[in-house]
Amino acid sequence: MSVTVGIVGGGGWLGSAIAEKGLGAGVLNASSLVVSSRSRRGDRLAPWPEVTWTSDNAELARRSGIVILSVRPEQFGQLELDLQDRLVVSVMAGISMATLHRTTRSDRIVRAMPNAAAEIGRSYTPWFASPRVVEADRLFVAALFSSCGEHDEVESEQQLDYLSGLSGTGPAYPALLANAMLDHARRAGIAEQVAIKAVRAVICGATLLMDNDAFDPAGIVEAFAAYRGVTAAGLAAMIESGLPESVGAGLSAAAAATATMAKAYDA
Ligand SMILES: NC(=O)c1ccc[n+]([C@@H]2O[C@H](COP(=O)([O-])OP(=O)(O)OC[C@H]3O[C@@H](n4cnc5c(N)ncnc54)[C@H](OP(=O)(O)O)[C@@H]3O)[C@@H](O)[C@H]2O)c1
Predict the structure, then answer these.
(1) What is the extent of the structural domain holding 117?
(2) 191 and 157 in one domain?
(3) How many domains, the chain?
(4) 164 CB under 6 A from ligand 1?
(5) Exposure check for the chain: N or C terminus, fewer CB within 10 A?
């Protein structure tokens, strides 16, 4: 595409993953990509020496027709960006449309929430567009986040905030489960390397087994429960001791934290 794209914070974890995937898929063009960071990093972009690096966000804004904001939420307050007439795509958690509009002066804004699996092209990225976003903007956003995995435009900012606490969290929740299993195996006296292999097989193997179009976790639970064997006993005890409720409480807390964060930045 010919329009210049700028990524503020493009040397960071998520920004550089999006840049790498977008460049790899041809959605971004190295010679019309400007990336900013205060201290240049982002080895991921080394294969594309034509990418322009700058520490001057005003220069990035001047040169770009589309600006992706990928600094940490607490760093956003220090940016002074006039992005009027630009498409702004924010991947920052908990920075609302209202705050983005007030601080950038853009009225074509997309809020998107990829996750850490963007770096392996397996993110799920829900996104929400402000009313002035046009079809061409939508096509760009869809192509960009397709290059990072799957994506959907959602109906409301509230849904995006909820999903920030669900899919935006990437591997964190499965990692919590893996860690709890590892701790338990250690306490049962299982050798460290054996425990690691066993838990990795459960978490990573299960992920691959469930990764198909039929994606049916409830069906898998039912099928194992029907055996009335070892796994069924484990499942029953986990359910009885409140695992589903704990997961629900965690997701509600994450959604509430996003809303609280958004209010704090709105103020
Ligand atoms: N990582 C994830 O899995 C994930 C998932 C969903 C959403 N997000 C969102 O993505 C955003 C970035 O997260 P991250 O994990 O990629 O953080 P990160 O690795 O710390 O990246 C932030 C980048 O912003 C740069 N930066 C900070 N201030 C800057 C400024 N004034 N001008 C230019 N660059 C600046 C930093 O580089 P310098 O310090 O060198 O300037 C850094 O490279 C966050 O808002 C987060 O909510 C992240």
Answers:
(1) 5-169
(2) no
(3) 2
(4) no
(5) C
Alpha-carbon distances of 210 from 181, 213, 216, rounded to whole Å: 19, 9, 7
C-alpha to C-alpha distance for 71 and 215, rounded to whole angstroms: 34
Those residues whose C-beta lies under 8 Å from the C-beta of residue 133, and which sit 6 or more positions away, are 87, 108, 109, 110
- 148 lies in some domain: yes
Q: Is position 52 within any domain?
A: yes
Half-sphere exposure in the Cβ direction for 147 (13 Å, CA): 18
Tell me, using a 6 A CB cutoff, whether residue 117 lines ligand 1: no
Examine residue 250 and state whether it is found in any structural domain, yes or no.
yes
- The model's pLDDT over 10-63, given as tens digits with 9 standing for 90+, comes to 999 999 999 999 999 999 999 999 999 998 766 899 999 999 999 999 999 999
* CA 26 to ligand 1 center in whole angstroms: 23
Last residue in a domain, options 134, 151, 169:
169
User: 133-160 pLDDT, tens per residue?
Assistant: 999 999 999 999 999 999 999 999 999 9
Atom of ligand 1 nearest to the CA of 57: 32
**Residue nearest atom 6 in ligand 1 by C-alpha distance:** 115
Residue 236 lies in a domain: yes
Q: What single-letter DSSP state applies at residue 93?
A: T
The pTM of the full predicted model, rounded to 2 decimals, is 0.94
